[in-house]
Structures are given as C-alpha cells and as structure tokens.
Write a structure and sequence with these properties.
single chain; 81 residues
C-alpha cells in the first residue's frame, strides 16, 4: 500500500528535521535507530521525498529536544508555494 506522494510541506518538514538533528549534534544513524527505521529512510524524510508519520516525528522532537511545533512552523507557506 503506497502512501500519499510527498509535497512541499513534506520538504519543509524534512528540512526542519535535518536542521534540528544537526543542531542537536546527532547522527542520522542515532536518530534512525531511535525511530526504528533505516538511515536511508531517515534521509528520505530529511529530503522530503517520503512523508514522515506523526509518531516518528514525535520521536525526532524528543531526541533533538525540539518542540513539535517547530517542524510545522512555516509549513502553510510551503503549501501555498
């Protein structure tokens, strides 16, 4: 069963995931392991080619010490673009 295709919002959220991970000085491997996914899958989330599910985004927020709202900040602007 295929999910919905990624959108500009997914790209924006992915950019935020990457920025939060880097700011927290975490490797992709560390964050991917916390979520229970492969590093390749996390890379797809960070590039916005795959849509991240809510529970995985919640784990990213916890791992990076970032409020969940951060990932959605400006997302409505990306949708309009």
């Amino acid at each position: 069963m295929a999910g919905k295709p990624a959108t500009a919002v997914d790209v924006r959220i992915g950019e935020r995931i990457s920025a939060a991970r880097i700011r927290a000085r975490l490797t992709q491997r560390t964050v991917a392991a916390a979520i229970g996914i492969s590093t390749a899958q996390l890379q797809k989330y960070e590039k916005g080619t795959n849509r991240i599910i809510a529970i995985a985004l919640s784990i990213v927020a916890q791992q990076t010490g970032t409020p969940i709202e951060y990932f959605f900040d400006g997302a409505h602007e990306a949708k309009a673009a």
